[in-house]
Amino acid sequence: MQDRPRFRPDPSLEEIIRRANAAPPSSSLRSQQVPRSDPAFQNRIRRVDVTPSFSAQSSQSPQFSMQRSTGTRTIWHSIRVWFFTILGISSIVGSVAFTLYLSYSSNIIIMTELSKKSIMQETLTVLFKSGRKGTTTSHSYTGIASISISGIGQARKTQMSDAFYIYTDQRHHHVTPWRKESIGGTLFINNQTVDTFIIGGIPRYRTDHHYNFQIKAPGGKLTFAIADDHPNDNKGSYTITMTSG
Q: In 3D, which of 239, 236, 76, 240 has the Cα closest to residue 147?
């Protein structure tokens, strides 16, 4: 009976193991001069190469995660800083705008009240039948005041007149407008001729009998009347709008 040949280890693997054990601890298997076509060598190289790569990747992962986490925290911190900065600026601007609005509103109210106090206006009706008694204003006036007056009537017999001029005869025929303070028939203020108070002289005659002029008020209330001591047969009226300032 023939003896079976004994199992012999692969000489190549033995060579690799021997050389690996004989090499210094710091040496790499890549530096061994072993044929690269050897399957055992390739397996060994794969085992040697994969482990350090995995270890390096594993050791770098926590650092990379830490850097990413730190960067994320920095971004969120910057966002919060900008948000509160903008919020603070908006609050300041809003407060200033609201203060200006209140100031403006207060000034408008004050100016309106002052205007109401400083500018007075009223409208009067003066009947020709009231004669020199006339109609008195509700307010007192001092200094320059503006007057708008319209209306016609009969005050000097049957002649027609407006605030300043007699413009018909007794038969109501038109004549050249004329006036004479001593004979009356026209507007009086405080029982004096309007010439005493008017600024700039008597206006020119107007066919619509509507006049606008200014006077220098002496102070106190004013009485507008017709210069006629016998007003019982008078007809007509004036409408006067008086404005201060």
A: 240
Q: What percent of the chain has pLDDT over 90?
A: 46
Which class would CATH give 121-244? mainly beta
Q: Which residues lie below 8 Å from residue 205, measured CB to CB, with a gap of 6+?
A: 164, 165, 167, 177
Q: Which residues lie below 8 Å from residue 35, measured CB to CB, with a gap of 6+? A: 12, 41
Tokens of 13: 């693997």
63, two tokens: 């650092």
- The answer to whether 215 touches 147, Cβ cutoff 8 Å, is yes
pTM for this entry = 0.54
Q: Which of 237, 184, 178, 241 is nearest to 212 (CA)?
A: 241
Contact residues for 111 (Cβ-Cβ < 8 A; gap 6+):
none
Tokens representing residue 183 in the block: 């004979």
Rounded Cα gap, residues 166 and 179, in angstroms: 6
Domain ranges of the chain: 11-61, 121-244
pLDDT, tens only, 199-209: 999 999 999 99
DSSP letters, 212-229, are: EEEEEEESS--EEEES-S
Rg (CA), the chain: 58
Q: Hey, what are 128's tokens?
A: 């020709």
Q: 126 near 194, Cβ under 8 Å?
A: no
| Cα Dmax for the chain | 182
**Total length of the chain:** 245
Tell me the pLDDT band of 238, cut-offs 50, 70 and 90.
very high
